[in-house]
């Protein structure tokens, strides 16, 4: 082994406590729902910082950490993002989307109107870095989508556990984000995370709670 290592310091729990902690987390995360009706209630920056640091702890290819999190609170920038996103969504609903896809979206009642982008107090634009630079030398990143996907999952889990609600939004294409947020060419938008608190009368589709049974999604070998 030609690199330095450090001793692993980890919490040690009994099997009983591990089982209880696992169940407790499931009881919390199963309440997560995607929402589209956000209040204007503000969010403490410290919550966002802790969540992003949690995301940045994700396993990733060769520890190259191929991600960037652009945190957007500015109303003018959110307005620009909404305008650009709706432009792509209009094209999607009118021309790009196959009939089967539109049928699958019907229960959600979605359309090209993305008012939530301006309503929510915070948006996190997550970028995947296709390559990096070290000492001005271009370095290829590995397992980029896998790494950023895992980090995004941890970010969502942290934010939900903290008590916030959110929506993952992926207008396609999203390269308008590079221009609006002044991000470099080596970064590609991965997902927009719309973040905040639900309005008092917020509603979600009933079928959203109807998840597949354990036996439908697992096989034990």
Summary tags:
40% helix; single chain; two-stranded antiparallel ribbon; globular; 4-stranded antiparallel β-sheet; 221 residues; alpha+beta
Count of DSSP E strands? 6
Mean pLDDT: 94
From the spread of the alpha carbons, the general shape counts as globular
Biggest sheet features: 4 strands, antiparallel
Number of helices: 8
Low-confidence stretches: none
User: What series of H and E elements makes up the topology?
Assistant: HHEHHHEEEHEHEH
Q: Quickly give the structural class.
A: alpha+beta
What oligomeric state best describes the polypeptide chains here? Answer: single chain
Distance between the termini: 33 Å
Strand residues, percent: 15-25%
Helical residue percent band:
25-40%
User: Cα-atom Rg, whole angstroms?
Assistant: 20 Å
What does this structure look like?
A 4-stranded antiparallel sheet has the order 1-2-6-5. The protein has 221 residues and is an alpha+beta fold. Helix content is 40%, strand content 17%. The chain has 8 helices and 6 strands, in the order H-H-E-H-H-H-E-E-E-H-E-H-E-H. A hairpin with a 2-residue loop joins strand 3 (131-134) and strand 4.
């Amino acid at each position: 082994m030609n690199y330095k290592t450090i001793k692993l310091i980890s919490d040690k729990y009994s099997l009983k406590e591990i089982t209880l902690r696992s169940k407790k987390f499931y009881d919390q995360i199963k309440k997560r729902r995607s929402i589209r009706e956000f209040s204007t209630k503000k969010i403490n920056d410290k919550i966002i910082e802790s969540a992003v640091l949690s995301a940045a702890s994700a396993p990733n290819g060769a520890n190259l950490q191929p991600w960037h999190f652009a945190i957007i609170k500015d109303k003018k920038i959110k307005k620009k993002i909404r305008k650009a996103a709706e432009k792509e969504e209009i094209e999607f609903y009118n021309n790009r989307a196959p009939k089967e896809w539109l049928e699958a979206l019907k229960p959600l009642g979605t359309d090209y109107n993305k008012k939530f982008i301006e309503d929510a107090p915070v948006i996190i634009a997550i970028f995947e870095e296709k390559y990096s630079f070290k000492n001005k030398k271009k370095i290829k990143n590995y397992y980029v989508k896998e790494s950023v996907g895992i980090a995004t999952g941890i970010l969502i889990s942290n934010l939900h556990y903290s008590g916030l609600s959110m929506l993952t939004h992926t207008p396609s294409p999203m390269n308008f984000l590079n221009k609006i947020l002044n991000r470099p060419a080596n970064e590609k938008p991965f997902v927009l995370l719309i973040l905040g608190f639900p309005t008092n009368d917020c509603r979600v589709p009933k079928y959203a709670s109807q998840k597949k049974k354990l036996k439908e999604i697992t096989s034990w070998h």
